[in-house]
Amino acid sequence: MIVQQPDGGDANASSFRIVPATPADLPGLHALVRALAEYERLSDVCTSTEADLAAALFGPRPVAEALIARLDANSRVAAGFALFFHTYSTFLGRPSLWLEDLFVRPEHRGAGIGQALIRTLAGIAADRGCGRFEWAVLDWNTPAIRFYESLGAAVLPDWRIARVTGESIVRLAGR
């Protein structure tokens, strides 16, 4: 568990903590996923359910992990989250950490929560021997781009994401 407070130790500033998600967090986590989809103007393609998240995070074969930003030590209120998983770099011969989603509710932005989530993930990547810590950002999301660059991240202009979804996967598989 990591406890963070904004720089300066202002007693009136909000405090928060970053913790690994548990099954009890699923309703709040799913609500944050839906809020992220609305923010990114992608609500129409957000079809995940709490059950989907439960299987992905806590099922017999977990494929992802999540961190929750709580408002204080006694609160179950989730102000933000980060969902991540491992990939592998054949060039580096080491695992990479991929940040799939990062979101802080608008009313809690500016308190250092996003930065604490990113720094916590960087620590996880370092502890696990990852050669890379990566994520994607929408090209129109200039506040996020500026934020990531302020933390030292390079936004790569040369790479594009290729994607196959739904029935296209089945057709590509020849089924």
Summarize the structure.
This protein is of the alpha+beta class and 175 residues long. Helix content is 31%, strand content 23%.
What does this protein look like?
The chain has 175 residues and is of the alpha+beta class. The protein has one domain: Aminopeptidase, CATH 3.40.630. It is 31% helix and 23% strand. It has helices at residues 26-39, 50-58, 113-127, 142-150, 166-172, and strands at residues 2-4, 16-20, 65-70, 78-89, 94-104, 132-135. The chain has a 6-stranded mixed beta sheet with strand order 1-2-3-4-5-6.
- The secondary structure category is alpha+beta
Q: Which fold does the CATH topology refer to?
A: Aminopeptidase
Estimate nothing, just give the exact number of structural domains.
1
Q: Average pLDDT across residues?
A: 90
Largest beta sheet: what is the strand line-up?
Answer: 1-2-3-4-5-6
Q: Strand portion, in percent? A: 15-25%
Largest sheet: 6 strands, mixed
Radius of gyration: 17 Å
Q: Write down the CATH class.
A: Alpha Beta
Number-wise, the strands total 6
Number of helices: 5
CATH superfamily: Gcn5-related N-acetyltransferase (GNAT)
Give the termini separation: 46 Å
The proportion of residues forming helix, as a percent range, comes to 25-40%
Unreliable runs: 7-13
Order of helices and strands: EEHHEEEHEHH
Label the CATH architecture: 3-Layer(aba) Sandwich
Shape descriptor: globular
Relevant terms:
175 residues; alpha+beta; Aminopeptidase; 6-stranded mixed β-sheet; 5 helices; 31% helix; globular
Mind sketching the topology for me?
Layout: E1 2-4, E2 16-20, H1 26-39, H2 50-58, E3 65-70, E4 78-89, E5 94-104, H3 113-127, E6 132-135, H4 142-150, H5 166-172
Parallel strand pairs: 5-6
Antiparallel strand pairs: 1-2, 2-3, 3-4, 4-5
